[in-house]
């Protein structure tokens, strides 16, 4: 029986890769600078000068939140110069890519793929914004002591071992159940 009813997306399975990327992100976020206040949001809003607030990537007025230009997993930190307003489709599509790589990529949801006009100009404006507020991406580990860096390495090694154990269990289960 076919229906014309539009259903929401069915639940998807969260895999170990996603879970462990969140552990990695949480570790990086809590060991790096995080200083993005309401005053900073006002400065960003004023800098881009759009009324109402728009997604810097595509111009949508359905802004969902603040997004890292340089992703946390690539060393980005939560400060003015790296935070911009973004709509849901852009935020979901960009994922771990840097903004300039993603905006001109053929990834589903990218401004280029969606035919958003003025992508090169948008990229230039975002780069000017980063420069204006003095944001320069740096290795997130640079703010850690050598002992802290060694501890992070040990923790991440344990996480990788745990992920391998989980992947093995999943493979064995699927093999046994024909899935």
What does this entry show, briefly?
This protein is mostly helical and 179 residues long.
Description:
The chain is flat. The chain has a two-stranded parallel sheet. It has a two-stranded antiparallel sheet with strand order 2-4. α1 packs antiparallel against α7 (about 145-175). With about 180 residues, it is mostly helical. The mean pLDDT is about 90. The chain folds into 2 domains: about 25-140, Orthogonal Bundle (DNA Binding (I), subunit A); about 145-179. The protein contains 7 helices and 4 strands, in the order αβαβββααααα.
Number of domains: 2
What fraction strand? 5-15%
Q: What spatial order of strands do you see in the largest sheet?
A: 1-3
Computed structural class:
mainly alpha
Quickly count the helices.
7
Q: Label the CATH architecture of the largest domain.
A: Orthogonal Bundle
Largest sheet: 2 strands, parallel
* Overall geometric form: flat
Instruction: Please give the radius of gyration in angstroms.
Output: 20 Å
Spans of at least 5 consecutive residues with low confidence: none
Distance between the termini: 27 Å
What number is the mean pLDDT? 89
**Element string (H = helix, E = strand):** HEHEEEHHHHH
Return the CATH class of the largest domain.
Mainly Alpha
**What is the helix fraction of residues, given as a range?**
40-55%
Task: Write down how many β-strands occur, each being a DSSP E stretch of 2 or more residues.
Answer: 4
CATH fold-type name of the largest domain: DNA Binding (I), subunit A
